[in-house]
Amino acid sequence: MGIIRELSDSLANRIAAGEVVERPASVVKELVENALDAGSSQIDVELEEAGMKRITVRDDGHGFYPEDAELAFVRHATSKIKDEHDLFRIKTLGFRGEALASIASVSKVTLRTRRKETDGLELVLDYGSVTERNPVAMNTGTELTIEGLFFNTPARLKYLKTTHTELAAITDTLNRIAFAHPDVKIRAVHEDKVLIQTNGSGDVRQALASVYGHQTVSGAVVATGSNADYQLRCYLVKPEVTRASKNYVTLILNGRSVKNFALTQAVLNGYHTLLPIGRYPIAVIEVTMDPLLIDVNVHPTKREVRLSKEQELCQLIEQTIRLSLSKQTLIPKVVEKPAKQKTEQEKIDFSVVADPFEATTNSESTFGSAWNYPIPKRTEQLVTPVSQEKNEAERTSESGQVEARRKFPQLDVIGQLHSTYIVCGGEEGLYLIDQHAAQERIKYELYKHSFGKPHADSQQLLLPYTFEVASHDMTRIDEALPLLKDVGVELEPFGPQSFIVREIPTWFPSSKQEETIQELLDEALDKRKVDLATYREEAAIMMACKKSIKANHPLNHEMMRRLIEDLEATEMPFTCPHGRPVLIQWTNYELEKLFKRVM
Q1: Which of 285, 317, 324, 492 has the fewest C-beta atoms lying within 10 Å of its C-beta?
Q2: Are 435 and 421 in contact (CB under 8 A)?
Q3: Reported pTM
């Protein structure tokens, strides 16, 4: 007698629900996406107990035909795909035919629907079984009410979080949908409290303002870019407004909000050196592409996708954001008394670095040797282009650099405050410049430019580094050795599974030489290539920080003037490599308010 048996439809649907319906937010997502696919212009969501007691989603879409209402709750029944060819050109948000069947198997569902040309219908299902079918008077559209979610699967209930956490997940889901579909009015209410309300104007910035507030997104930058495969439109909040997690980066691919680590990292790379460590931007990235380039059928909830040319898209996103932000004036304006915080200079120990100003702080004779370093010209290309093909962002890069320089204010040096901040006057107000952060930016761009054109200089190690290679890597080590040699790291055999390093490139960070060599070897073995950009970047930031003037260090007037001139010549004069602001501004209006000249 055999032991394999076919599962009942009810049990199969409950198993599917474990993948599709993880929490109340999953239900809201599926129902709202179905409403969008139905051509809705307005969607209302009502919640009780964060959706665990009741979820109601009401729309003004085209509704169900009466004969389709019950069929919609059958597993893998859908109107959105007809054959296997449609799987490669998905243009709808819901298409797998699992959502309604899965939701109905773990809840009580009431469907009320009407098409324009038919009478209204009410259908009631009790954990997957139809119990009532009644006529109903209603406007065109659909209303779905979900009650008692997971009541028949108590094991699932115990994995749900607190009401506050579940409500936050629902709100986050609706926020992302609102950004992806700004032309649809979306309103969500939890026990008479409005969670989100958008006006359906079609402007993503209006949706951003509804979620994050008008003041936060008032200066949002719109950046566009394209190549042969992708069209990109980015809504970027300036880096003076940051958040503590990456969750505020929204990725929208062909109208679908998705999660993708590589694309999110590309956004962060675009903001590189503009954000403090541990802080992240608010950004919405819209990507339009041929559906053939994206596979949305790799995850039951369609939350994750697979891209055919992911690396090219990452490069386009990073380059577009970086070039766009380089055109902006990123000077924080003081509108209220700031909280006192420990400065970056106070956090870093500079005592181990010899400072050329320590002995002769105000000596004019030391000015030349200490400050006369070359600055790369603004017209030089410091960022590697995405490709040889000119996209919109690349075509405007040179004019953008000129514009960035023009946006840097014309400043007159007034003096120095606490031997740390340079006080300047300008046409639009009063400015304070952090001297350490300013010189960090100057030297960072100098070192980055230098490291971008590496030479063959190397240095002997006083203590050669010896390390062992795993036995399974020995079969591939011959492929890695030439790659490492090309970047200045030559390995010599030193035993059956051991190698020795006697020389390394001069730009290697002195504090992590062995770690860097091991990382380069791992990269060569795993990827069959060595990308030095990350390592050179870290070295440039470290050297800029170590070799820049510190806080509590007096400067004479000529030193301050020269520092400002060199700062203006940089690509991004508004932040240091760690993302902290270099200068802040009190506008003329704020000064007049302080002195009661305006009320």
Answers
A1: 492
A2: yes
A3: 0.71
